[in-house]
């Protein structure tokens, strides 16, 4: 049996040449190893090369372009204007990327600002005035700020185009051109895109110089290499992930489960939380000394622990004969890793079980895994507290039957005799059942109710795949929505009732069909069902609101 585990040598991130404070930060965040795209993209970016990266989300590409930016900020002195600009297609991504940059750059005191449409302009202007190092922006809003000269790009040394294909799909090509031409020509440029359509290549040819090209592949898995595994995903809001896992484990009662987390910190937290719920979990990660890992593996192999919580790195090469379940408490980075993980069960013709606990925003990633593997992942309903209670009662019943069948009860006969001398025999039996059930953990608290998340119909793309709600996105239960931009806002005296009234009168769409209304200084945004969007736009175009003729179109900022 071969067990190759990563040993505690120099961190993989240090080897890439990153500033030691960043390496320390990543260790602190529990990142064990760079992902393939990080390994390939970080060194050329640190050296100042332009780069074309073909990679989808979930590969760790945000850190791949953020860390080199932070590395160079760590080396620069007092800055007044933004030195890095990251362009992204949607406001959600702007927030997410800005959050990641701030997280990684925390020890450097880096100032990051997401700027996107739909949010108040003045707040963004005040933040820009105070001084920002890294701007993460949607192209439309970046251009707005440039026109008002509240965003100055003459000190920019790095531009990242993230999800370039999405930005082009959304009609941002001209905006991107305008933004790039306002930055110094000697800047470094990195372009990331899931696809390399000719128009993406054209941008690269025009704006990048001697770019290093990297491609993180996702070739379909040959059918013969796929393990025989029953795959189920439980989709719950983030705060219910642990409760959901607890219930699923209770229902499945795995003989031996390997539970995967993305980081060391997540392994430690989950191990502790599971222990608090009465399980006997053991943790395994690269931050542990070799003898501690050996002890954990001995316990797990001997069946003294039935849950092993591990990172991908620590579990590499691990071969456990009696493993029945693989659990993804976090989705892995990259689809190949999903296949590696679930390949741990279902060996030698036995059917294994793979369980994934996912957040609603990860449904797109689940779809991508299905497409990649050609296998279906069922959506499971997290067992209710009542179901679990029933199951536990059933197990106690089975245990009683087995104990009776096994005999050897004579040691208790005298005790029973003396008890029935004073008590009703049925009461004695019931009390004994109660004690037995409790001793088996039958009366544990199942925790809070877990709200059901309805899955989008198959074939429909989820918000993570798609910039919501421009092309009609799924937003929890309910219809697909489209966001409509209307060219009048507070400045024109527009109130929500004006919009509801106009949409009802002109388009015949009742108020209850309008899902949200946002009124900013100069414009308004209204979410309506996707299938009514075109009609609403046509009906509103040219209509007068508060005396002002308005135009309506699909919102570009998503
Ligand atoms: P991305 O593909 O950039 O959207 O990243 C996906 C997720 O993986 C994010 O939650 C990151 O925090 C996380 N992540 C990125 N790189 C690593 C790494 N090397 N180790 C562990 N987690 C990572």
Précis, in short:
One of its GO terms (molecular function) is helicase activity. This protein is of the alpha/beta class and 558 residues long.
Give a verbal description of the structure.
The chain is an alpha/beta fold. It has helices at residues 12-15, 20-28, 36-46, 61-75, 91-104, 121-130, 139-147, 164-169, 173-181, 198-207, 241-252, 264-276, 290-301, 335-342, 363-373, 385-406, 413-422, 425-439, 496-507, 530-540, and strands at residues 51-54, 84-87, 112-115, 134-137, 158-161, 188-193, 212-215, 229-235, 257-261, 281-284, 307-311, 325-328, 352-358, 378-379, 481-486, 516-519, 524-529, 544-545, 548-549, 552-554. The chain folds into four domains: 2-216, Rossmann fold, CATH 3.40.50.300; 228-383, P-loop containing nucleotide triphosphate hydrolases (Rossmann fold, 3-Layer(aba) Sandwich); 385-439, no CATH class; 481-554, Alpha-Beta Plaits. It is built from 20 helices and 20 strands. The strands form four sheets. A seven-stranded parallel beta sheet has the order 3-4-2-5-6-1-7, with helices on both faces. It has a seven-stranded parallel beta sheet with strand order 10-11-9-12-13-8-14, sandwiched between helices. Strands 16-17-15-20 form a four-stranded antiparallel beta sheet. Helix 7 (139-147) crosses helix 9 and helix 19 packs across helix 20. The two termini are 52 Å apart. The model is unreliable at 1-8 and 455-476 (pLDDT under 50). Bound molecules: adenosine monophosphate (AMP). Adenosine monophosphate (AMP) binds at residues 31, 33-35, 38, 57-63, 262-263, 333.
């Amino acid at each position: 049996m071969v067990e190759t585990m990563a040993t505690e040598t120099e961190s993989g991130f240090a080897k890439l040449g990153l500033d030691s404070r960043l390496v320390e930060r990543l260790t602190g965040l529990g990142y064990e190893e760079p992902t393939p795209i990080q390994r390939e993209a970080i060194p050329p970016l640190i050296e100042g090369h332009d780069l074309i990266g073909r990679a989808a989300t979930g590969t760790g590409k945000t850190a791949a372009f953020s860390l080199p930016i932070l590395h160079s900020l760590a080396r620069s002195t007092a800055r007044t204007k933004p030195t890095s600009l990251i362009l992204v297609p949607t406001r959600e991504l702007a927030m997410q990327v800005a959050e990641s940059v701030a997280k990684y750059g925390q020890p450097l005191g880096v100032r990051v600002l997401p700027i996107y449409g739909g949010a108040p302009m003045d707040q963004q202007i005040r933040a820009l005035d105070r001084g920002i190092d890294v701007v993460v922006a949607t192209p439309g809003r970046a251009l707005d700020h440039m026109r008002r000269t509240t965003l100055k790009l003459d000190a920019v040394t790095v531009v990242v185009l993230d999800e370039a294909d999405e930005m082009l799909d959304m009609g941002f090509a001209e905006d991107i051109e305008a933004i790039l031409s306002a930055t110094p020509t000697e800047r470094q440029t990195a372009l990331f895109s899931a696809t390399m359509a000719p128009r993406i290549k054209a941008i690269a040819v025009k704006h990048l110089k001697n770019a290093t090209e990297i491609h993180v592949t996702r070739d379909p898995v040959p059918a013969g290499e796929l393990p025989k595994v029953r795959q189920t995903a439980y989709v719950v809001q983030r705060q219910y992930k642990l409760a959901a896992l607890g219930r699923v484990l209770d229902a499945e009662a795995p003989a031996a489960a390997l539970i995967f987390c993305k980081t060391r910190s997540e392994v430690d937290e989950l191990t502790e939380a599971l222990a608090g719920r009465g399980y006997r979990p053991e943790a395994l990660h690269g931050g542990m000394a070799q003898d501690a890992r050996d002890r954990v593996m001995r316990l797990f192999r001997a069946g003294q622990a039935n849950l092993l919580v591990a990172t991908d790195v620590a579990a590499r090469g691990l071969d456990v004969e009696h493993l029945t379940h693989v659990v993804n408490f976090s989705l892995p980075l990259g689809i190949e890793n999903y296949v590696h993980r679930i390949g741990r069960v279902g060996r030698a013709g036995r059917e294994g079980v793979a369980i994934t606990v996912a957040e609603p925003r990860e449904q797109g990633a689940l779809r991508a895994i299905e497409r990649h593997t050609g296998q279906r992942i069922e959506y499971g309903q997290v067992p209710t507290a009542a179901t679990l209670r029933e199951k536990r009662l059933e197990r106690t019943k089975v245990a009683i039957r087995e104990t009776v069948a096994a005999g050897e009860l004579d040691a208790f006969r005298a005790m029973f005799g003396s008890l029935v001398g004073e008590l009703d025999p049925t009461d004695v039996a019931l009390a004994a059942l109660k004690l037995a059930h409790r001793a088996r953990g039958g009366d544990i608290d199942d925790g809070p109710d877990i709200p059901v998340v309805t899955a989008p119909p198959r074939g429909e793309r989820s918000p993570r795949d798609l910039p919501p709600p421009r092309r009609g996105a799924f937003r929890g239960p309910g219809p697909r929505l489209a966001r409509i931009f209307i060219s009048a806002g507070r400045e024109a005296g527009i109130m929500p009732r004006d919009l509801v009234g106009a949409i009802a009168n002109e388009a015949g769409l009742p108020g209850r069909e309008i899902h949200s209304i946002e009124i900013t200084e100069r414009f308004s945004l209204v979410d309506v069902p996707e299938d009514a969007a075109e009609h609403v736009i046509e009906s509103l175009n040219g209509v007068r609101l508060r005396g002002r003729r308005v135009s309506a179109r699909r919102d570009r900022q998503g």
